[in-house]
Design a protein that fits this description.
- It is a single chain.
- By secondary structure, the chain is α/β, with parallel strands linked by helices.
- The chain contains seven helices and five strands; from the N terminus they run αβααββαβαβαα.
- Helix 5 packs parallel to helix 6.
- The longest helix is centred in the first third of the chain and has 14 residues.
- It is globular and about 50 Å long.
- Pfam families: Isochorismatase.
- Belongs to the isochorismatase family.
Length: 192
């Protein structure tokens, strides 16, 4: 294993059924299409010995831990997205957490906000991040911008293993991230 991979972590953000599958009210258009690329990216990361970190949302069924603007989606008579223990909170088919991986549960956009992610990365000697998942202008962007603020020297987002509501939104957010020093390889480029 190359030394640089020992210091690299791959984030897999919000690749959960409630956000990806047709018919779900929080389904991200185009999200389902990136599942094969995320599966491939995780496979390559494991082959390289990269730490794979699954970043998921899991919420209280009553919505007591969601952002204020989402509280109307939860309650005794409703089951909002990514309720802890629900089928919708599960990873999409083909995505599996292995023993050597790590799982972070978040309740906000950024994977760093209110979690132990940063101390975990520091303890593991991680200085390089590779990001996959959904959705580019929300959870991915917030996580990446916070990583920039925390001075991670190398951050990449795999452009075709991530998605937004439209290609235009995705491209605009990738441009913003490029402007703060984030690398934007395709999966093929990253695998090379």
């Amino acid at each position: 294993m190359e030394e640089k991979w020992k210091k690299t972590a791959m984030f897999v953000i919000d690749m959960q059924k409630d956000y990806l599958l047709p018919g779900k009210f929080m389904q991200l258009p185009g999200g389902e299409a990136v599942i094969p690329n995320v599966i491939k990216a995780v496979e390559v990361a494991r082959q390289r010995g990269i730490l794979v970190i699954w970043i998921v949302r899991e919420h209280d069924s009553l919505g007591r831990d969601v952002e204020l603007f989402r509280t109307h989606m939860y309650g005794k008579e409703k089951e909002g997205p990514a309720v802890k223990g629900s089928v919708g909170a599960e990873l999409a088919d083909g995505l599996v957490i292995q023993k050597s991986d790590y799982k972070i549960v978040k309740t906000r956009f950024s994977a760093f906000f209110g979690t132990n992610l940063h101390p975990l990365l520091q303890r593991a000697g991680i200085d390089s991040l590779v990001v996959t998942g959904i959705q580019t202008p929300n959870c991915i962007r917030q996580t990446i911008f916070e990583a920039v603020e925390l001075d991670y020297p190398s951050i990449s987002i795999i452009t075709d293993a991530t998605a937004a509501a439209t290609p235009e939104i995705h491209a605009a957010n990738l441009l913003d991230m490029t402007n703060v020093g984030v690398a934007t390889p395709t999966l093929k480029e990253w695998c090379a």
